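Quick one: sequence plus flavin-adenine dinucleotide SMILES, need structure tokens.
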Amino acid sequence: MGGSLAGLSTANWLCATGWEVDVLERACEPLVDRGAGIVLHPATSRFLTAQEGLPLDDFSVAVDHLRYLGLDGSVVTQHESRLRFAAYGALYQSLRRSLERRGGRYVHGARVTEVRNAEETVHVVLADGTRTSSELLVGADGVHSTVRRLVLPDVEPELGGYVAWRGVLDEDELPDHALRPLERAITYTILDHAHILTYPIQGADGRMRRNWVWYRNLSAPGQLAELLCDRDGVRHGLSVASGAVRPELVAGLAAAADRELPPPLATLVGRTATPFVQAMVDVTPPHLVVGRVCLLGDAGFVARPHAAAGTAKAAEEAWLLARALSDPAVELDEALRAWEREALHLGSALVTRSRRAGERAQREGSWKVGEPLPFGLRSTGDSEF
Ligand SMILES: Cc1cc2nc3c(=O)[nH]c(=O)nc-3n(C[C@H](O)[C@H](O)[C@H](O)COP(=O)(O)OP(=O)(O)OC[C@H]3O[C@@H](n4cnc5c(N)ncnc54)[C@H](O)[C@@H]3O)c2cc1C
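Reply:
Sure thing.
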């Protein structure tokens, strides 16, 4: 249930271990352009490299440096870095092609509305009334997970008190004086109780783009509700998608960029026509398996993005699940319990580490210019290649 990166990773790993898999995705079209970049982690690329034999360069780009810019735009410090970055669309398309080759079924327009555990079967009802059942339901339906709400109704996202503004701009649209200080690097600027980062990604059309994320604290009650009201007046739970943010908020962000950011980053943010906004939350479910339903990716634990490992967590959980289910000597419910123990540990440790990094940057102001990044899935630093 859910055909984004967590659902596709799970489907691929399960297909590879002999399961018959259907992916139920509510969106009617492929999820190619979500306007986002992903810091790659070896866990995220494991399926594509180890099982499909794809070279990393097919779906990601590398940089040489971690660079910190000062407020005047000059380089304050720079260290070597072996991080890689992918466009959401590149990962999605590679994982979909692989699922197709392996005979997994991907169904669009399949919104799950009801889920019922019964003995050794899970029954599912879709919005159009279709009924289906299976031995196992993997809930990979994201931060707003319907299945989490159905099986663990008391679990609510906890707000972190700040948002991430994000955007992507074609490098062609950046003047030379703005692009040059960012080249071949992941670039950070530490601001007053805020921070911004940018790194390169490659679009499906081969063009180089600049992905950026600007973390900004909420300063007044009601500000989040205002940010989450889209251009049509629709109120959203935790995010407003690219293209749907109200024009006055986009203009306000560009003006704030001019006031608060180093010139290259102000240009990058100011020229991005369709930035989007996401509230920062922690989600910490007490269980990840309820009967024959398991919660994976953002449907389970949600960590703030400072460790850059949400997709990596989903991919790791998918790999662990397939491994747990691949031993024919172990009965399915026992295998699920073993998986849950590992995944609970992985998720809660990541949430704690990511929350701490966010608090240091956004509340304490103790994230120092030049520090190594808090990126990593199981431990800080394990995202490098
Ligand atoms: C600012 C920011 C930066 C990030 N940077 C990184 C990074 O650099 N590296 C990294 O590893 N992670 C990063 N992450 C985390 C990462 O984006 C998420 O953890 C990951 O995308 C979650 O994937 P998912 O498949 O679980 O959820 P989603 O991508 O949200 O997918 C859920 C899917 O379920 C479908 N769905 C929902 N409800 C239903 C239903 N009822 N029936 C059927 N389908 C349904 C949706 O349409 C969607 O396709 C970042 C997150 C943020 C907010």
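The two ends are 31 Å apart (CA to CA). The CA atoms of residues 59 and 90 lie 6 Å apart.
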